[in-house]
Write a structure and sequence with these properties.
Elements: E1 7-8, E2 22-27, E3 34-39, E4 43-51, E5 54-61, E6 64-69, H1 74-79, E7 81-84, E8 88-90, E9 93-98, E10 104-113, E11 129-136, E12 146-152, H2 159-169, E13 182-183, E14 194-197
Length: 200
């Protein structure tokens, strides 16, 4: 699945009514994270606060960031990197979607996309995109966590509601390395192409 680019979907997957999960919010500001490996300005690997015993894993490479959540296995921890092609950075507040019984099944995190001006190649604030990235949380019995869907936060009137629907209905049964993460709802021209690299 290396290099697989997420495609566009305008229809939310829904197999019927589902019980809504609860939300819990955790700050993953970098000063709250533990540095595992770091080469300033080039590469960073950190572990950040999570939900209960479900940790957050942060990577940064070449001004692009990637997050994964939960009990990620070693292959995914080492080799997975899911981001966007333009320079980007994620927000600091993770919304965890927690199922009945207390198990977190998905997360929602806002990404800021530094889209370049086609004339100059420089990133400009007027072209900045914002995308809510919905991720499947890795469980101990599987070890696979990955991006399960995207919502353009600028093109939809209530992007958080759309993202929660994806988190509750799509992410829990999403098959990392098999299924393809797609955009849900409307997609504008500032929602850049994702770059998903997962182990085979």
């Amino acid at each position: 699945m290396n290099g697989k680019v997420a495609c566009l979907s305008l229809i939310l997957v829904s197999a019927g009514p589902a019980m809504a999960n609860d939300s819990a919010y955790v700050d993953v500001s970098r000063d709250k994270c533990k540095i595992i490996v770091e080469e300033p300005g080039m590469y960073a690997l950190m572990t950040c606060p999570g939900h209960g015993d479900y940790p957050v894993h942060f990577k940064e490479y070449d001004a692009r960031q990637s997050f994964s959540f939960g009990h990620i296995n070693k292959r995914y921890l080492n080799d997975a990197f899911e981001s966007f092609f333009p320079f980007n950075h994620a927000g600091t507040m993770v919304e965890w979607r927690v199922a009945e019984g207390g198990t977190p099944v998905a997360t929602i995190l806002r990404w800021f996309i530094e889209n370049p001006d086609p004339k100059t190649g420089e990133s400009v604030p007027a072209l900045e995109g914002q995308v809510l990235v919905v991720s499947k949380v890795a469980q101990k019995d599987d070890g696979k966590g990955c991006v399960a869907g995207y919502v353009d936060a600028l093109a939809n009137p209530d992007p958080n509601a759309v993202a929660r629907k994806v988190a509750d209905e799509v992410a829990p049964t999403f098959r990392c390395g098999v299924d393809q993460a797609t955009f849900h709802g409307k997609r504008g021209d500032k929602a850049a192409e994702p770059n998903n690299e997962l182990p085979d």
